[in-house]
Here is the input.
Amino acid sequence: MQIYKVGGAVRDRLLGKPVTDIDWVVVGATSEEMLAKGFRPVGADFPVFLHPKSGEEYALARTERKSGRGYGGFTFHASPEVTLEEDLIRRDLTINAMAEDDQQNLTDPYHGRRDLEARLLRHVSPAFAEDPLRVLRVARFAARYAALGFTVAPETMALMRQLSESGELQALTAERSWKEISRALMEDQPQVFIEVLRACDALKVLMPEVDALFGVPQPEAHHPEIDTGLHTLSVLEQSALHKQPLTVRWACLLHDLGKGLTPEEDWPRHIAHEHKGLKLIKAVNERFKAPKDCQELALLVGEYHTHGHRALELKPSTLLELLQSFDVYRRPQRFEEFIAACEMDARGRKGLEQRNYPQADYLRGAATAARSVAVQPLLEKGFKGPELGEAIKRERLKALKAYKEAASV
Here is the structure.
């Protein structure tokens, strides 16, 4: 039995990056031997075991063969005869197909270290094209390591394009796709993830609603970058620079989908794009089974982001309706995330990335003013039921009128 550290732990050590998760591969062992040593099996599909003390994953060296469609369409073979090189060749990228023994001696049969130094994301073997999930994984790695200068090797991009055109991407489950998408959006340069998917024609398969934004013009006076797709990439980039959570980043990606529905004869204006985009945002949300908080914020940002930009001009009654829509009294954090998404949208414009966004503090102040209305005095006056609700609404409107007047002085 020989044990090797493999994959990301080796890659990140060689890159000088912190190593978080460690995966191990065991050569020359059987499942029975692993169980005898106290390892705990993980599921029934893979020969993977948890270490009895550290809890880290140890997988028996295995080969795999394509047997069906999609990510799960593989037959695995694990036995003591499978070599380390045979195990490594089934991996996606050369930089993930290296192994180390306990003395840090490197096993690198597919030149992963060379590609690390060349800053290339290159597939290990033609079997790369058998797994459609790898299109998303490579795009995610491109987003992770873009700051280090990594790019996708042309021959790997060609295989990704082949996968995009094969129909295999449709075989991916919503759960697996979302796992990759959500991780990619939380990388330092999530816009690169979208750029790579678009470059290999996967974006128009996975998110045609986002792909449709490229080439759609906006008024140059408001959007110096003009192109709606490029604007979306910039908004996503800003969301990462400002360390926004996943909910905000997802909303940033989807906020302008309605502009993809504008007839060409109406360009560059996009009348009512906020409302038109809701059905598209809903479709993308459902396609990937995004978490509920991501779904809700994306829809609210899609519908109301222009309200956010015009906050200082809104009538108190419109401002109150906006606050009610977000249920700021019980869910203040959601409104805070809406404000963040609006600010990222404003900053995601060429040359305007550093411009102040006074709407943010104004909206926060409006929410505070509305929340400051006390219910108890109204109860003491005898209001109850629907009448109480109307009385609260009147008092909140009064508070917002006072707030607006004070802010404009």
Notes: DSSP finds 20 helices and eleven strands in the chain. The longest helix spans residues 385-408.
